[in-house]
Design brief:
211 residues; mainly alpha; two-stranded antiparallel sheet; extended; Pex16; peroxisome; peroxisome biogenesis; Peroxisomal membrane protein PEX16
Length: 211
């Protein structure tokens, strides 16, 4: 139910508000170093907030009195690249594939079984095709390229997801960790709990549909 709600919300933002290639989580921690650097360059405006869609809003703190408001949106900063807002049908299809991946994967697990390779392959294929389609777009902002880079790194997580983990990765990880524990002094007390609960942590934190 939660996964369905999240996917529905993302699809609504994509098809209605044209918000695509969103970061996860949507609200990122404040990058204070970037704010300080922008202030030094004079490109940071404390009075205006620019949304991912390109729409600008005044902060509540700097909103003028009611009788002095013009009700016009503040101008966009010069650093905002409007071309990143251009959303083509190719992007819509690719982003829809990425958003629907959790639902398709869960449906595949229901049809083929939790230990079947088919949901794993289907999910990996969908994510790869989606990334290739989005990366082929030339009109991307720096923030969008960063999000796509994170999604590319997430492909590595398939090495520790079922059923690949149980059939290939787990034995090699355990062999390496046992060698590491026995070879490096004082590491044993720290690593042995990880070895004991590796299977439980993998099942909890590495669901394909959790990303």
């Amino acid at each position: 139910m939660i996964v369905t709600f999240r996917c529905s919300a993302r699809l609504y933002l994509l098809h209605v508000h044209k918000l695509h290639i969103l970061d996860s989580p949507p609200i990122q921690p404040l990058d204070r170093k970037k704010v300080v650097a922008d202030k030094k360059k004079g490109s940071y405006d404390e009075n205006v907030i620019t949304l991912p869609s390109g729409r600008t809003m005044r902060t509540i703190k700097n909103t003028p009195p009611f009788n002095q408001r013009t009700w016009q949106a503040p101008p966009r900063p010069d650093t905002f690249i409007e071309r990143g807002l251009i959303i083509t049908n190719r992007r819509v299809v690719a982003e829809t594939m990425y958003i629907m991946k959790p639902i398709i994967h869960l449906g595949g697990m229901y049809v083929f079984g939790e230990r079947s390779w088919k949901p794993w392959f289907i999910s990996l294929t969908i994510e790869y095709i989606s990334l290739q389609r989005l990366k082929s777009s030339k009109s991307l902002t720096a923030q969008q390229r960063l999000v796509l880079s994170k999604r590319t790194l997430n492909l590595v997580m398939y090495l520790v997801r079922s059923p690949f983990f149980e059939n290939y990765s787990e034995k090699r990880f355990r062999a390496f960790l046992y060698w590491f524990v026995n070879s490096v002094p004082l590491v044993g007390p720290l690593m042995r709990p990880f070895l004991e609960y590796m299977q439980q942590w993998q099942e909890t934190y590495f669901y394909i549909w959790s990303v």
